[in-house]
Amino acid sequence: MDYRNMVVKNVKDISMKVNIAGITFKNPVTTASGTFGSGMEYCDYVDLSRLGAVTTKGVSTIPWPGNPTPRIAETYGGMLNAIGLQNPGMDVFIQRDLPFLRAYDTKIIVNVVGKTAEEYCEVAERLSDCDVDMLEINISCPNVKEGGIAFGQDPCRVEAITSQVRRYSKKPMIIKLSPNVTDIATTAKAAEAGGADAISLINTLTGMKIDIERKAFLLANKTGGLSGPAIKPIAVRMVYQAANAVKIPIIGMGGIMDGEDALEFIMAGASMVAVGTANFINPRATEEVLKGIEYYMIRKNIMDIKELIGCVR
């Protein structure tokens, strides 16, 4: 369709649809795993049917208790968390969370976690027969068979774990990349080579906070993942680098607080964006981000969100 002579007057005039691996999302806004549960905590504040997708908290083979407390700390421009991917396991997710989400007109992206390649594969295989739309494989988990080194820190391991889980998953697969690497483009290419349908980035950056009064680490785990506005410039840069290195779609995240932040990621090359830490500050953040994108498109007379994806070169 030729949009050049058309005038955008309201939201009904614009198309927000994006397609990733054959899945059509009504708009490019989802939630960042670990910040939204499965939506139950937020459904009184956000109409989940307005979102392009809900990305769930990490799901493992069996319940994970997470790390000891304290495991959250505020920082300038963000927060540190060392939750340790606490979750009730895939049986509870399938029986409780999935029916809840299916009551809404939104896509479901399930974040998958594991401590070994076999655990990732088991969850992926089990979810392949469930009514979910995509899997997001969180390869920032420590590989216990390799001394706790995260799968996502070595491009060879990234390709290997992606390829292995690919064989067990019938669902389109997103690989969630760690920013704690030397070259994000190399890691992105490794995920693509392993068979990823899309990639998401960035996960949290490793950080630390010390309580100077107690002369002790503030987090029981000593280190935690830094998220929030402080990491956004790094995240935008990495999304841009990855977008110029691979042909598969990207879901961008890292410090998105409003529509303007989201548009930076989209212009850098992200087909979708995920809102994370902002949910803790403002439970309506996801809908407000979506409205911000819509308002920008109306103001700039842009008919289709795809006109903005990767428009900055």
Written description of the protein model:
- The structure is a single chain.
- By secondary structure, this protein is of the alpha/beta class.
- The chain has a single domain, classed as TIM Barrel.
- Helix content is 28%, strand content 20%.
- It has helices at residues 90-102, 117-127, 155-166, 184-193, 232-243, 259-268, 278-281, 285-299; strands at residues 18-20, 23-25, 29-31, 53-55, 72-75, 78-81, 107-112, 134-138, 142-143, 149-150, 173-176, 198-201, 205-208, 210-211, 216-217, 223-227, 250-253, 272-275.
- The strands form five sheets. Strands 3-18-17-12-11-8-7-4 form an eight-stranded parallel beta sheet. A four-stranded antiparallel beta sheet has the order 5-6-16-13, with no helix packed on it. A two-stranded antiparallel ribbon has the order 1-2.
- β11 (173-176), α4 and β12 (198-201) form a beta-alpha-beta unit.
- α4 (184-193) crosses α5, α5 (232-243) runs parallel beside α6 (259-268) and α6 (259-268) crosses α8 (285-299).
- The chain is globular and about 60 Å long.
- The mean pLDDT is 93.
What is this structure's SSE topology?
Blueprint: E1 18-20, E2 23-25, E3 29-31, E4 53-55, E5 72-75, E6 78-81, H1 90-102, E7 107-112, H2 117-127, E8 134-138, E9 142-143, E10 149-150, H3 155-166, E11 173-176, H4 184-193, E12 198-201, E13 205-208, E14 210-211, E15 216-217, E16 223-227, H5 232-243, E17 250-253, H6 259-268, E18 272-275, H7 278-281, H8 285-299
Parallel strand pairs: 3-18, 4-7, 7-8, 8-11, 11-12, 12-17, 17-18
Antiparallel strand pairs: 1-2, 5-6, 6-16, 9-10, 13-16, 14-15
